[in-house]
Amino acid sequence: MMSPVLRKELLKAMLVSSKHVSKVDIQEVTMSPKVNAPLHLHPCPTVGVVTEGAISFQIEGQPIRYLKAGDAFYEPADMRVAKFNNDGEVPARFVVFYLLGANEHETVHILPK
User: In the CATH hierarchy, which fold is given to the domain comprising 26-104?
Assistant: First the structure.
């Protein structure tokens, strides 16, 4: 008989920040086909999971990862995100969790190239 609750590990991320996380801002984001996110960073640790479509994802200086529905990702605080693109022909959707300190509200900084 199958267990009524199944767990599948999607991601374990080591938070390199020593700050205290006191709130989480959760957003569902939909990217139209062929949309490229600009060079950016998050001032807080960010974790998420792709729920539809596919994303090409790269933290600057690291290899590109290709994420599909069900794949999780981690963007450390203050690391430049070189690529977070929907290269596909259909919309991509993901849920992102911004781990914020008590007085933090900003979740993303767009950077000049």
Answer: Jelly Rolls (2.60.120)
